[in-house]
Amino acid sequence: MAIKNILLIGGSGNVGAPILAAITAEPSLNVTVLTREDSKSTFPPGTVVKKADYKSHESLVAAFKGHDTIVSNIATLAAIDQLPFVEAAVEAGVTRFYPTEYGSIASSDGDIVQEFWDRVGFHGKYEVYLRLKELADAGKIEYTLITSGPFFDWGLQFGFVGLNLKEKKATIFGSGNQVVAVSNLSHIAKAVVWTLTHPEESKNKAIRFWSYKITQPSLLAVAEKITGTKWEVENIPVGDYIQTAEEGKKAGNPYAGYQVLQGLIFDEQDKYGSNYKVNDIPFEDDRKIEDVVAEALKPFVN
């Protein structure tokens, strides 16, 4: 099956915008962006945009018809909202569905996935995958799971990898020796295009890849070399960090799940497989890690 007509849901966010740009640049693919009827999102000139009522099955089916593949970039906290998309996609005759995934663990990784999401608290991704697999097993639709590890360039800006760029401080979890596979947003976008242009290789499976494999001390060394200064370092027992975050989650803080996720990713026991063993994409990121860190540090370096 050749993939040609793509419907992109969520084409203006952190990951959606670079994916839109990458698909647009691929001459063998056509892309249309789907937005809510009341959306104020803007897109590059020439972008084809459809609007639909996300709460209406009929509206979604009408919007999906004529597209062989849907790539969804719904936010993680709203991942469960993709279930109506999946049902509408089947009725509309869509062949392939890419759910929001992009995580450090693939929803197809077996029983450990349920435990992982129980601890983090974001169950939507897994529930959507289970429905997709059920439909795929029945021959009604195909799926591809994009499994990229944490967003590296985004994570630098927002402290997810443990660096506070503005204050030149680093938080090291445990010994810091955990190896974590991470990906830049532009590399993720290119990987998505590769899977779209290689449909048999990406059919009904998780596609894993990374831009770099990092440890926190090695990343800190890069930052210190660029800034020419020693950074303040705080070492935190990762178990304590996870426990505090889990308590916050139980208390009703929806964003505490991201802290649980962060702790599990940087836990050197690597129970959930943050150190990927196989790269399914046959090309490397063309950006050096030093250049990405330097770009992120620009606003804070005199």
Automatic annotation (TrEMBL):
GO terms for molecular function: oxidoreductase activity. Keywords: NADP, Oxidoreductase. It holds the Pfam family NmrA. CDD domains: PCBER_SDR_a (cd05259). Residues 4-241 form the NmrA-like domain. PANTHER family: NMRA-LIKE DOMAIN-CONTAINING PROTEIN, NMRA-LIKE FAMILY PROTEIN. This is NmrA-like domain-containing protein. It comes from Orbilia oligospora.
